[in-house]
Amino acid sequence: IFPFLIAGTWAHEGTEATVAEPARRGDLLFTVQVNAGENSRTSALVKLLVDAQAVADQPVTVIDPAGRKIPAQISLAGIEYDSGNSKRLLTFIAPEIPARTTIEYTVHSQDSDAGREFKWHDDQTTQAELQLDGKGVVRYMYEALDDATEQRRAETCKTYHHVFSPDGTKLLTKGTGGLYPHHRGIFFGFNRISYDNRVADNWHCGKGESQTHSHCLSETSGPVYGRHANVILWNGRDGEPFATEVRQITCYRVGDATLIDFHATVKSNGKRITLDGDPQHAGVQFRARQQVADQTREKTFYIRPDGVGKPGQFRNWSDKPDETGINRSHRNLPFNAMVFVLDGDQYNCACLDHPDYPKPAMYSERDYGRFGSYFRYQLTPEQPLHVRYRYWLQEGTMTVAEIERLSQDFVNPVAASVN
Length: 419
Fold this sequence. Notes:
Blueprint: E1 8-9, E2 16-17, E3 28-35, E4 41-51, E5 58-63, E6 69-76, E7 87-97, E8 102-108, E9 118-122, E10 127-132, E11 135-141, H1 150-156, E12 160-163, E13 186-190, E14 192-195, E15 198-200, E16 210-220, E17 225-235, E18 241-254, E19 257-268, E20 273-276, E21 282-287, H2 290-296, E22 301-304, E23 307-308, H3 325-328, E24 335-342, E25 345-353, E26 362-365, E27 370-374, E28 377-379, E29 385-395, H4 400-411, E30 415-418
Antiparallel strand pairs: 1-2, 3-8, 3-30, 4-7, 5-6, 5-8, 6-7, 9-10, 10-11, 11-12, 13-21, 14-15, 14-20, 16-17, 17-18, 18-19, 19-29, 20-28, 21-27, 22-23, 22-24, 24-25, 25-29, 26-27
């Protein structure tokens, strides 16, 4: 008897693990049933918690009824599960599951020989890069704050993640300098923060504020995904931290696309904090490389739930009395996607929102390559902030229907259980 599967559910994953004690035969660990629900699934992300006392971190193989071997991995569960070190997460990508169909997979301890693996390369001082087959996927920029000069302070006052093209050949996102130097990669902050009769702006970080890397909380590598979680201090104008964030990035390769899950938890350091801003300078945002602003902004367009926009046109939420209806309604979107051109190649970056996280969410777009959303939040020691978004990056463009399918997969994932 090999009793290691646990019972329970977890937030937003739509998956329930049930107690089972399957007999171990050879390299067979257990079997998993995956139900598609009402929608057909292609490249479905399957996740299942298992007991860490019986299953070590390892690459494993999942085999479907047709005998196909699918790479999988068992690794430490992420911050969204709040499971500590007692549980591990089985993860694999199921090729296809028809609607209203359940498929049974067997999970084996043997390595799938997938021939590829995500690996972190950290220089321990300025950046940690996740690579797949030696090519960049994302790069975490975390150099310590340097007050030696005004320029050095501007370069080191905030943390962010660069993103590479899905084939790993080029950097898609902007770093320091250029048009609006406070826009960098995938980044998170608010320009209107107040607490204890003080104000702060950890978006621009222009009056002593900063976001500083404290330490890496966890780091995971494997054939299916790479993930890390980092502790980031939100410092006020006096240089002292008023809040602490754990920011987690998880990256998958799905076909020729990159899927990035962004999770963040922000906790107050004992204060009641108002987090506020405006659609252009708060929330979680993505900024494309400077070349878009300099050379190709007229080719940028957006794909929204109501259709495909025209090149060079963009929307920004506003509640001004004379604002147009289309901008007033630019909020609480299930998704928004930016299509932009770099080095002659077209890329589609879709951002998927989750209904269980802060609302209303006000959206902003720019032709120079920045888009995202922000929200208002009252942060207290008893009420931390939880944020979750998913990014999908691929070459070329997409249809509204294709992004809607990705959105449904994000909000209503497949249900997995133990047979």
